[in-house]
């Protein structure tokens, strides 16, 4: 084993990300080129433990590519990406990163339509593997408590036995967030959570995401500015693969550079 591999194993064995210096995610000087086109350009970004951060930016700003780097789907050409002080994400595979406690929710819900709401959580808890084995295995009291608590958090307690395919679009999105929560992530990456939702569903999603902050660190990428305003604490504006502005919603909305970027879209 090379020295590098040893270091990688140690970080995995360390388990919990070391956020003793407040940040849980460190992205530093990241660069990604696709056929010579710089999708990510010297990007540096820090997320604090328990923080709820909104990431906005016009189409093509690099938001998805940034999420892809954090989850190991895209490898940067240069730069650093650390989870806590010690866990080097750039040395890990996608499953290793998920196991380390980074959960990602994509825009489109992907629940198991023919299974009940509770079974979906059960399957997610077992890592979506061995479907039938998972569903026949008896849940421990602790596992059952986690399912019950998660259903309460996502507002689907009354839908316990309901087939997931029969849920509304918004309910499917919440169920999928629940499927991440049962895996007890430290960091949740949520991509365009309110696309296609009714106003009522958007309000409920705002409550849900804000209730998760503190217990988890949450990064939300979203185009809907009214929604972002309703949940925003700190907002990061990406443009051409870099951070253009960062601050409160009011600060970034009144930033002339941000105004120009959005007007020019
Ligand atoms: N695999 C790829 N090959 C080539 N170019 C890519 C690839 N992935 C992304 N890009 C380009 O990189 C840039 C950044 O894309 P990215 O999807 O990260 O932006 P985004 O901010 O998520 O945009 P949107 O809000 O439209 O989803 C875009 O110009 C995109 O066309």
Walk me through what this model shows.
The protein has helices spanning 3-13, 63-70, 94-100, 117-125, 131-136, 141-153, 169-181, 199-212, 225-231, 249-253, 256-263, and strands at residues 23-34, 37-48, 52-56, 78-83, 87-88, 102-105, 187-191, 217-221, 234-239, 242-247. Helix 4 packs across helix 6 (141-153) and helix 4 (117-125) runs parallel beside helix 7 (169-181). It has eleven helices and ten strands. The chain is α/β, with parallel strands linked by helices and 265 residues long. 40% of the residues are buried. Residues 1-14 have low confidence and may be disordered. It is 38% helix and 24% strand. The site of adenosine-5'-triphosphate has 10 residues, from helix 2. The site of adenosine-5'-triphosphate (ATP) has 10 residues, from helix 2. This is Urea ABC transporter, ATP-binding protein UrtD. Residues 25-265 form the ABC transporter domain. InterPro entries: ABC_AA/LPS_Transport, ABC_transporter-like_ATP-bd, ABC_transptr_urea_ATP-bd_UrtD, BCA_ABC_TP_C, P-loop_NTPase. One of its GO terms (cellular component) is plasma membrane.
CATH class descriptor name: Alpha Beta
Percent of residues in helices comes to 25-40%
Overall average pLDDT: 90
Rg (C-alpha, Å): 19 Å
Number of helices: 11
Provide the spatial order of strands within the biggest beta sheet: 6-7-8-3-9-10
CATH topology label:
Rossmann fold
Shape: globular
Q: How many β strands by DSSP?
A: 10
Query: What's the end-to-end separation, in Å?
Result: 50 Å
Q: How many domains, as an integer? A: 1
Small molecules held by this entry? adenosine-5'-triphosphate
Q: Biggest sheet, open or closed, and with what strands and sense?
A: 6 strands, mixed
CATH superfamily: P-loop containing nucleotide triphosphate hydrolases
Give the amount of beta strand, in percent. Answer: 15-25%
CATH architecture identity: 3-Layer(aba) Sandwich
Structural category is alpha/beta
